[in-house]
Amino acid sequence: MARFKVSYAPSVRRLPSYLLLAKQAQDHGDEYISGTMIAIELNLEPIQVRKDLSITGIVGKPKRGYPVGPLIAAIESYLNWDTRVDAVVVGAGNLGSALTGFPGFKQHGLHIVAGFDADPEKVGATIYDTPIYAMDKLDERVQSLGVTVAVLTVPSAYAQDIATRLVAAGITAIWNFTNVKLKVPDEVIVQNEDLSSGYAMLSIKRHLRSLMKTADAE
Amino acid sequence: MARFKVSYAPSVRRLPSYLLLAKQAQDHGDEYISGTMIAIELNLEPIQVRKDLSITGIVGKPKRGYPVGPLIAAIESYLNWDTRVDAVVVGAGNLGSALTGFPGFKQHGLHIVAGFDADPEKVGATIYDTPIYAMDKLDERVQSLGVTVAVLTVPSAYAQDIATRLVAAGITAIWNFTNVKLKVPDEVIVQNEDLSSGYAMLSIKRHLRSLMKTADAE
DNA sequence: TAGATTGTTAATCGATTAACAATC
DNA sequence: TAGATTGTTAATCGATTAACAATC
What we know:
The structure is a homodimer of 218-residue chains.
Chain A: H1 9-27, E1 32-33, H2 35-42, H3 46-54, E2 66-67, H4 68-79, E3 85-90, H5 94-101, H6 103-107, E4 110-117, E5 126-127, E6 130-134, H7 138-145, E7 149-152, H8 156-169, E8 173-176, E9 189-192, H9 195-217
Parallel strand pairs in A: 3-4, 3-7, 4-6, 7-8, 8-9
Antiparallel strand pairs in A: 1-2, 5-6
Helix pairs in contact in A: 1-3, 1-4, 2-3, 7-8
The structure holds a DNA duplex (24 and 24 nucleotides).
């Protein structure tokens, strides 16, 4: 179960926020955006922004910053967000629907071309123009669509079984929103999106703040 | 805009997955769970699990592992997940509804006591027993409920305005699911949940794999 | 007892930050 | 030109991993 170890993972995770700012600068008609400006906007160190951007190969101009168009192109190319990628959503509940409808993903090349749900009420309907199919159509549809990316938003109890089916049908990358540690073959990519760890961070920060307040009062 | 810098943030983020395994062990009737077992299950190094768990103060038993009950208690206490925390959801769309209905959060002490939405269709209804109010009731309701935590799932365009209103109404911690870098006073905690960065990681892993396959073929 | 596992101390690794020359 | 900003090289910092004694 070796996985694809990403170098510069923290930098990669910050790139989308740089991309957003670059796009805003573009909309605003700016020709250049400096690392310093990005850093101020995002509350980061300028050197960190420059270091992060360097992995995309973008070259800036002293005194001006980075040319906005090429910067956007460089980040999108580095992330492969300038190529269309088709995906299916499995589990068309609220979370699955939210992800299907989120316009940001399509902008990043991710097209949700089908959804699947166990609820007969949902089958046959569309969610933001995406058709929803019954779960027993999963294998056939994934194969015929030739889709290789799946977004998994089913109840934990079904996660492993469905993941296994997805892989059998040809899925090679799973964006996993369940808290189940999926067991899949080595060559299949799993990107876990764990909301609990985000909540753990929020909780710790609140705790930390309360400790600081107590200390202040002394 | 200094923020609460969390020491051991990576460890904190892993704690919820350890907690889940400990609870599963408990359901299974196990008395002990070893760091080695947890590591195998989660594809981590045993030493990392031990190091992470040590921050909670739990003490294990050589040859046996960690006592399951006390381990659960130690993690929950460290994360403050054994205390009830009330919160409101702002934006009762699909994402807000998903988070409101997610049973995991209530298990971790987070109770969504009210939701707010701009859509008149939703106002007056309930989502998983949580009442939805109109946006103009936000300030009054937050204050009268005495809630200090808010989950923000509104369209980006409204995020900053609403955050400002939330803070004015007494909110001191915001779980931010928008891609807007919120400007709030120093003492207000913002936990950003950025789905784009997760998708960036998935994209890079796919790219990395395709590079490796090309290399293999040579 | 023997051996698996914990917990501590030290070493390594990688990410962040600092310093500064290059340059537009 | 003067000075802000880039990009590189080096230093620092923090997280992960290794080594190993303690122990049940």
